[in-house]
Amino acid sequence: xxxxxxxxxxxxxxxxxxxxxxxxxxxxxxxxxxxxxxxxxxxxxxxxxxxxxxxxxxxxxxxxxxxxxxxxxxxxxxxxxxxxxxxxxxxxxxxxxxxxxxxxxxxxxxxxxxxxxxxxxxxxxxxxxxxxxxxxxxxxxxxxxxxxxxxxxxxxxxxxxxxxxxxxxxxxxxxxxxxxxxxxxxxxxxxxxxxxxxxxxxxxxxxxxxxxxxxxxxxxxxxxxxxxxxxxxxxxxxxxxxxxxxxxxxxxxxxxxxxxxxxxxxxxxxxxxxxxxxxxxxxxxxxxxxxxxxxxxxxxxxxxxxxxxxxxxxxxxxxxxxxxxxxxxxxxxxxxxxxxxxxxxxxxxxxxxxxxxxxxxxxxxxxxxxxxxxxxxxxxxxxxxxxxxxxxxxxxxxxxxxxxxxxxxxxxxxxxxxxxxxxxxxxxxxxxxxxxxxxxxxxxxxxxxxxxxxxxxxxxxxxxxxxxxxxxxxxxxxxxxxxxxxxxxxxxxxxxxxxxxxxxxxxxxxxxxxxxxxxxxxxxxxxxxxxxxxxxxxxxxxxxxxxxxxxxxxxxxxxxxxxxxxxxxxxxxxxxxxxxxxxxxxxxxxxxxxxxxxxxxxxxxxxxxxxxxxxxxxxxxxxxxxxxxxxxxxxxxxxxxxxxxxxxxxxxxxxxxxxxxxxxxxxxxxxxxxxxxxxxx
Length: 681
What we know:
By secondary structure, this protein is α/β, with parallel strands linked by helices. The protein folds into 3 domains: about 5-130 and about 165-200 and about 265-425, Glycosidases (TIM Barrel), CATH 3.20.20.80; about 430-565, Class I glutamine amidotransferase (GATase) domain (Rossmann fold, 3-Layer(aba) Sandwich); about 570-680, no CATH class.
């Protein structure tokens, strides 16, 4: 049997077996090497499948005179012995996800890049520049220091340096340890876009000479220009430059990812960790740059780092879109940082709520970032942050275990037992949002309405005031949906969805119009909000879809069609958020129940007419598995440490009941007529 590690449609597989991947990050380079064995043992005992870890270029590279040497075996400093760290992971039967950057952030000086990678004058390295010609500066400069210019990723010199770094990591660490020969199951390239700037505006980068040279080849037009700001759009053909520059953003990311990881291609799964979109119009910039369907061999993954989603509805919506954009693994969930980011994250209930929200929206695994507090690093990699780093992980810097550790063990065990079956389920969502990226390309420029009026078109929308409003309306009615890229989806992929809703614009390429028309003729229903296209990608007359439209809806009317979607799940209270997943054989369901209310008590819903309820404290969450009409497994976060509230956890489905004996966090697994129960009180 083929047992190689692979990722298919966002799901991690060993051979043909799907694995719900539970990972934990351990910054070994911030800890004493003597602690590694103990901490890894405790990580494994928490129910973790794999350890994720950055390999900071800055940490492993050091200068000896004029010569740069790389240390992966600890000959110059014990905690540079990442080979030993990887061996210890293997001893504990922990898989590994290696993250060599080159930029990693991780609160390290210069984001983990060595000083000689800065785009200083005379270095021969181009800076990454914005539309004003200004270099991007290191956002994490030392106190009293200056922000060093960040290197342009596709600058020939920096690209060669990075590929040499990747080759060294591959030869010294990865090559002989790829699963099944070793325990490395994936490698992450870059960090949250390039320099943790994935959500940046499309005019923020990259106007370096190296990038513009490649852009001209990409555009394939004479006298092509890279627009640096929006000018008056006097005729429809003026839109071409704005469309092309926006379309280039995703291609630029693909080039960076594939160039940096070229030594790894075909040898090990390659993943990325994208951060959430910015608010408002930032969603259109993010949708322009993030088109994972056009990145073959690069697997979608994501991070969080928003305000607590249980406390902030905007963060709730942004995180939901991030995890719903495409199925993939959550590679960074904040389980450790309260002082650096938000004090709420010291409480286990906040971490659990965020974790379950991502899974409910499609995440195929989650990460504990970080699993361990650390306190042993030198100023060469970080001279800014106080110890320990972070401050509230499940495992403290002295190795002692916290309440977070107990809760982590419960939720990890739930998915260890039920993960493969969950991944074989489908969400209860027959409605899909039709994402047409060229609409985001124009929406990101925020073209004034008076310019659109010149050629009698409505302003084009995609993310802002379109997808974001659609999601808010759907969630207010407890309606679930999926996102389908209309440009790249095959007819078979479209056929999976009974209804496709989209905010239309005046144009759409002929190929996509024909595809949607065929989908409609085969019984699918296209629900247009706004304007139906009457031009193609060259702005020539093309009314294939317009002829199919019986009428156009207003966004407010979208609630009327939600009944066409998930009819099996009914929830009357919008503060009770429920997601349902169903096994194709209809004998197994999973329900994710999140309480947005400030009140504790039973949260009610029904599924296919069968009444169900979960007793939760305020701002808490649960996941339930139903098998053959009965409760099979349940995890309930019965304690809200932040608000000092608790309940005796209880779940009901039809006539079947489970109830704990005391106020606690509980995991219950049915074994015949008995329950195997673990609690954290």
